[in-house]
Amino acid sequence: MRQVWITKSGGPEVLKVKESDDPEPKAGEVRIRVGAAGINFADIMARMGQYPDFPGIPGVAGYEVSGEIDALGEGVDSSWQGKDVIGMCRFFGYSDVICVPVVQLVERPKTMSVIEGGGFPVTYLTAFQLMIVMGGLRKGDAMLVHSAGGGVGLSAIQIAQAIGAKVIGTASAGKHDFLRERGVEHLIDYRTEDFEKRTLEITQGKGVELVLDAVGGDSFKKSYRSLSATGRLGMFGFSTGVSGKRRNLWTLLKAMWSMPMFMFNPIRLMNENKGVFGVNMGRMWDEVPRIQRWLQELIQMHNDGHLNPHIDKTFKLEEAADAHHYIQDRKNLGKVVLIP
To answer: What CATH number does the domain containing 323 carry?
Structure first.
């Protein structure tokens, strides 16, 4: 077995490939020969020592994999043997072999490649929870999506198109043509434009029904002010607390200080008829049946032709550091995956 280890907190260069014996599946688990492993921002924060849910450094990151089952643990139905699957794992995804509880997996559709499967679960499940489960987005509603060119952003755009919702996206100017080709009518260059002002201009002062914000800090305040009456702000990240490629406590503290701690008080929310909620897929491990249902719904949406993962670039396991550089340099449009 080969795995990419976070050997210590730091920049991408701390990622190193190590070898060990192949694991054996425990009761209720299956062993997967990994064909692709998705990279998510949580992995980058774990590498920097800024992800509190990570079990500890040294350790192996990775939340999602795609591959073929080659061994079954006790109690697992024999029909799983040899199946191509996708699913989520509680870390250790940066591996060429991994054991995962079978309840966290679904069979990969024939119309989805193994590489696409490696980048499917986390971003689509996150977008689904934000938009459908908690955000209540409906046909005709307007939604503002920050970092529209990222993995969750592109997943959200496709789900919005599937249900007939309208999308306003923020992204650097170099990504606008790509996003227009994918049906995003209104785009905001977050580097040169005030997204709050532009959102209100685009909606003729009404605001949007839903905002997806993983930026954090002052962005949460501006996103809240961009909401219409009955609008909802879905918060699912804190990228403004990350500066550079190593942990910077000053940046983190400054970002925390700018958070709207007193903005979302109950009286104000009631008076303004607005809602605020948070999403963290990494805290949903006790909700496996619920996640399984959502994933099955997403697979059906894929089978219906609505959801097609966009894999921007692939890297070998030994190129994991290059993959992290690529993402942190904001070069990616969609998902980046490791290919064991």
So the answer is: 3.90.180.10
